[in-house]
Design goal:
- The protein has about 100 residues and is mainly alpha-helical.
- It has one domain.
Length: about 100
């Protein structure tokens, strides 16, 4: 990994700590080559476990979660690449928190 990507990762991780910056931090990490949203969520979960949880394909399958924007075309097998940073923050996290109660 080059230094530019390390700087981008470190900045995104720092920014995720700020209220209201979580989605932008997820997007910034998602844009780093070879990271993607699932790895971005894992990185931020390690750093901020009270704010994030890992977007995991097994969890999506167990809970049968898909973004609501796919209502008319929900696939039989949920996939992590269906989720955007906004979907993750606005739908996935609240659903997982609700189910964990």
């Amino acid at each position: 990994m080059n230094d530019d990507n390390r700087l981008r990762i470190n900045k995104a991780v720092r920014d995720a700590a700020k209220a209201g910056s979580e989605v932008e931090a997820l997007k910034a990490l998602d844009e780093v080559p070879e990271i993607g949203l699932p790895v971005a969520s894992a990185i931020l979960t390690v750093c901020y476990p009270h704010k994030f949880t890992i977007l995991d394909i097994r969890l999506l399958g167990i809970l049968a979660l898909s973004p609501s924007r796919l209502k008319s075309n929900k696939p039989s097998q949920p996939a992590d690449e269906q989720w955007t940073a906004e979907d993750y923050w606005n739908e996935f996290l609240p659903m997982v928190k609700q189910r964990s109660k």
